[in-house]
Amino acid sequence: MSSNPVNISIESPLQYFHKLSSHQSKGQRAELFNGDVDFALVVKEAPVCSHLNLRGSAQDQNFVNGISQVLDIALPTEPGTYNCSQEAAIYWLGPDEWMLVSRTEAAELEAALRKVLSGHISIVDVSGGQTLINLRGAEDALQTLLKKSSVYDFAAWSRASKDSGHCTQTTFAKATAVVSNKSDGSFDLIVRRSFADYIALWLLDAGQEFGCRIEG
Amino acid sequence: MLLIHCPHCREDREEEEYSYSGEAHIVRPLEPEALSDEDWGDYLFFRKNPRGIHHEMWYHAVGCRRYFYATRNTLSYEILETYKVGEQPQVRAQGAVQ
Amino acid sequence: MSQINRLNSKGRIDCDSPINFTYNGRQMQGVAGDTLASALLANGVNLVGRSFKYSRPRGIVGHGAEEPNAIMQIGSGAATVPNLKATQVELYEGLESASVNGWPSVNFDLMSITGWFGRMMPPGFYYKTFMYPAKLWMTYEHFIRKAAGLGSAPVQDDPDHYDKLNQHCDLLVVGAGPAGLVAAREAARAGARVIIADEQNEFGGSLLASTNSIDGQPATSWVDELVAELNGFSNVQTLPRSTVFGYYDHNFLGILQRRTDHLGISAASGSRQRLHRVRAKRVILATGAFERPLVFAHNDIPGVMQASSVSTYINRYAVAPGQRMVLFTTNDNAYQTAIDWHRTGRALVAVVDSRPAPNGQIVQEVKDLGILVIAGSAVIEAQGGKRVKRALIAPLNADGTEITGAVQKLVCDLIACSGGWSPAIHLSSHTGAKPVWDQAIIGFKPGKSVQQERSVGACGGTYSLADCIAEGASAGAEAAKLVGCGDGAVHFPMPQVEEYSEQPPQALFLVPHTKATSRAPSQFVDMQLDVSASGIELAVREGFKSVEHIKRYTAMGFGTDQGKLGNINGMAILANALGQSIEQTGTTIFRPSYSPTTFGAIAGADVAGLFDPERYTAVHRWHQQQGAEFEDVGQWKRPWYFPQSGESMQDAVNRECLAVRNSVGILDASTLGKIDIQGPDAAEFITRIYTNSYLKLAPGKCRYGVMLKEDGMIFDDGVCACLGDNHYLMFTTTGGAAGVLAWLELWQQTEWPDLRVYFTSVTDHWTTATITGPNARKVLAQVCDDIDLDQDAFQFMDWRDGTVAGVQARVFRISFTGELSYEINVPAQYGRYLWEALIAAGEEFDITPYGTETMHVLRAEKGFIIVGQDTDGSMTPADMNMDWVVGKNKSFSFIGKRSLQRSDSVRADRKQLVGLKTLDGTQVLPEGAQVVFDPQQAIPMSMQGHVTSSYYSANMGHSIALAVVKGGHSRLGQTVHCPLADGRTIAAEIVSSVFYDPKGERQNVQ
Asked: pLDDT tens digits, residue range C512-543?
């Protein structure tokens, strides 16, 4: 967030895991990017960005139009889908609830939305409370990792396109996540900050059979 | 492990995404103060617990966060339908009063 | 010892790859492809254990999951696994095996020599003998367990890794025999997502040991082609070494996959076993059938085996488990074993057939080989000690119920038996489908499907190979169509199978003896638990009638083999004793697990550090670096206290408590639940939920509230702030956050959907740093210059937006210590930065980080309750002396209000919150201690209440406690007593629950 004075440091939820891998040495997780180790799975945490929880009625044309006007993305009203642009993505969470992830600064984005939206709506900044991580790798390894982690049937999803795909909020190990698929075959996860350490440890453990590393 | 259709997500989802929330269609009395202790106690504590068709409330806690209703056979665990709050069940026990 | 029983034939083994292993400490050699059982038999070992109750020598009987006797301890040390069936353990280099039964050893068993033990243990022995005196049961149990010897569990941590996969498929095929393989292929070709699982190391089922030919080639070649085709489908998962152990609701099945067990006792890397949790749209059960043993006298002597097992050892493993065989059968099918044995070149003494005039195709073929067939006769007794030496045979009447002639002795060391086949209906039984007796196949078949499944092949009672294949194919096509793939028609030509046409088998569940059953040598029904025919008859004489009761009384079917062999014979014997049909008697219901499943697999990866999520705040690593001790609060790890070097917990807490009251402390309060509430009806909604009103709360203001369940009992509490028009922030307790959010959603969604309000959890978004103490304002002033911190400008229960250490923050002036306090909230990515900025700003005031223990002491000094500690779901606000928080004049009857007027809620003797001051101020009451009025009262004393919170207060210089005491509010000044478990009694005075600063003046720091 560009307006901050330079001496203010921020921490992403997975900050302390960047550069860690599933390969262990003497019980410690070795910090390594050794060229001769193959990692079939890579977990990459996105830079800190804006996460806004949106509430409103999908039947309210003013709400639907206002969102697409500000974001240049259509509000996904089909359950279990998301729409995205280069700048932002909107995930369907429930019949009147969406998650907006954007590179635009949260307060600025909220102000822009509130300017065009009216009536019974809610916009809540939850940027500090969650993080977006991308899982990429060999398809078999990815599917196995997801099968280990969640009861949801991700294999039933059709491939995502550049500007839309599937998403679902479901269990992830003993925590929860919003999982979505991307056009490059990888998956995005939105996880809560307080569970991030647990999720990171889980991913390293579950991905160990394929080799798994975490990047920032 | 039940497989439950969420009427909002429009998918069959695993039981562990849901939490059970008790009997459905219990309406809170509009004027609690007008009720006797006994009538208020009936509302508070007494539930049907039928053998067979049961209308119950579920919460899609790890999903869309919506409450909805399900008609379940408590003998076979078969879920005969799920429907949204505000809707009425299509399947009822024989002799049930609408 | 060499492999004296190894044949020169090929089978499915590789004789050029020897494998060394040990059995009971002896070095032995087998070959690749062997099971432990086939290797032991190859080495001439047949005595593999002692029976559970009578300690009789027992040998290998079967070749798969049905094996009751060859129960082994595999490996040693941390990775040892007890109670594996030797018939299912694949041999690997260095395998260590030992019998689990037999003490001190299998060959010299103390129990059998003394002999008394067995005679002492008729059915119901436990119930009859060990009921009284109850306190001696532990002693008895220890002795019985040692004598029974059911293996030993490792005492060290399991070194292996386990995991679970959540699978979804259109079709799960259970069993990869001919029917299952063909079913999977049909469905796969139609495009369905298929999983096919089989417990054996390779697919093929019974065909792996078959001499049949299919389409003119050996059956195993046909299998190899089919398996290769299945492996080529991207929509098929093939799972060998995978046991489907349970069939649960809504087509949910559990599969245990043994991934590395065949390579060594402990996995080098990856998971040793994997649990597949499968949700299948359709299931095809193709689990085959078990051969039924024949029940005759001393049928448990090593050397009595299942006929199909003898064939399997010969054809699949190139092992002949004996020198001289007698085949005893009731059916045509088992004649194949005579042909197979004949091919080994070893002596075949005779085929003894219970039927008066067997004349099927295969019978004739056996006769043509010059083999003696003795019709209308039965083996009525085996003789021998640790190995069969003779078979006694006698002619039978046509019904098989009486002996009609002289007994004759046949010298042999192997009696292969076949009483026909019993479908493996276990999984269909798990679903609740009631098994149906079919007299035509003399067995129970799966009942009417209650889930989306179908049984095909032998498990459905179809025994002809050609019929099994046809059934499998049509079931596969049908299943695919039902999930929207294909047209339901079979598109494959059926293979040509050469089979004998068979004559009907005879039903023979108990072979008569020259003596009555009760006098005859034991005729065993369940080998593993030593249940004999006479035991079942005795149970009936004692009055048992229900098959389920008999099962529990005799323990029939209770072993690790779950009665796979013995059940049908047992039920038939029971039916006969009751004078009714098998149909009337019915069968016991099989339940999961089909075969034993390891705890490791059930736990999966959810162990050690991943057992339960640990939730951390954004400041967690700072706390760790400061050496904080942590306390579990729900799933959160919260700093408990921050010990400095040499400090005890009490020292640290005393120091932290004094620091807050005398200067300033800092607490990480980020774990408190936080819910953002927006909407035009937000104020009305939360006023219905809380006991007090929020209709007039202005922006910039906070209010403390309590929420009740509809029964009037306190459920959660916290501060709620008005952030703006129609916008509120609700704080909840740390543990109550998720429950409160669900509670708000419940009422809004189901009862008051007309109220326009949205709730969003923001717990994780905010880091909350609480600075508290007389110097709190001075600390905050160092890092905040855009909020007017003046006592009158920023009052108690106000909140302000501002910049703290350069970060946009929300500052709440609320207090849980009674001191001047600011709760500073910033988005969590700034959490650690803010925290360290505050620590730096507070340096000159010696700012002291404190944990939950100090927080508890400080709030208890002020008499502030903690929901869930001082309340337990049975406390009203009045009980907590908090009537002030209940809005009596609210127009809407808020949640729980009506219940506060219930007669039970207004009783004078309800437990009420009070303070307790021990007469001796150095004594700290244990939390949970019971409160009595009369310490001299005889036990059982009348409990008058209990201590809910108790601490030593360094600020007060004595201990303090909160308690709930019956009628406590009117008992101030009275002395009560807390009798402790160690016999001491501590006396305390009932005092106000507010110990410190009762007027609340410490907030008013200028």
From this structure: 999 999 999 999 999 988 899 999 999 999 99
What does residue C623 show for φ and ψ, rounded to 5 degrees? -60, -45
Number of domains within chain C = 5
Secondary element (H or E) of residue C887: none
Contacts of A205 in chain C (CB under 8 A): 605, 610
Judge whether residue C115 has pLDDT over 60.
no
Would you call A93 and B17 a contact, using CB atoms and an 8 Å cutoff? no
Q: What is the predicted ipTM?
A: 0.98
User: Is there a domain that residue C139 lies in?
Assistant: yes
Tell whether A5 is within 8 A of chain C (Cβ).
yes
Collapse the DSSP code of A154 into the 3-class scheme (helix H, G, I; strand E, B; otherwise coil) and give the result: helix
CB atoms < 10 A from the CB of A162, how many? 11
Q: At what angle do helices C547-554 and C533-541 cross, to 10 degrees?
A: 120
Residue B80 contacts C, CB cutoff 8 Å? no
Tens of pLDDT, residue by residue over C545-561, are 999 999 888 888 877 78
B14 to chain A nearest CA, in Å?
7
Provide the pLDDT for residue B31.
96
Domains in chain A, ordered, with CATH? 15-24+35-47+129-215 (3.30.1360.120), 50-128 (3.30.70.1520)
The partner residue sitting opposite A171, judged by closest CB among B62, B64, B66, is B62
**Exposure string for C786-799, b = 16+ CB within 10 A, e = fewer:** ebebeeeebeebbb
Q: Read off the tokens for B67.
A: 């409450």
- Binned at pLDDT 50, 70 and 90, residue C112 comes out as low
Report the alpha-carbon distance of residue A44 to residue A30 in Å, rounded. 17
Using CB atoms, pick whichever of C746, C753, C897 lies closest to residue B32: C897
CATH classification of the domain holding C434: 3.50.50.60
Q: Say if B66 is an interface residue toward chain A (CB within 8 Å).
A: yes
CB-based contact (8 Å) between C742 and chain B? yes
Domains of chain B: residue spans and CATH: 3-84 (3.30.2270.10)
The answer to whether C787 touches C794, Cβ cutoff 8 Å, is yes
Task: Establish if B20 touches chain C: CB-CB under 8 angstroms.
Answer: no
Q: Which residue from C166, C749, C893 is facing B66, i.e. has the nearest CB? A: C749
Q: What is the pTM of this model?
A: 0.94
Answer whether C101's CB lies under 8 Å from C52's CB.
yes
Q: Are C861 and C1000 a contacting pair, CB within 8 Å?
A: no
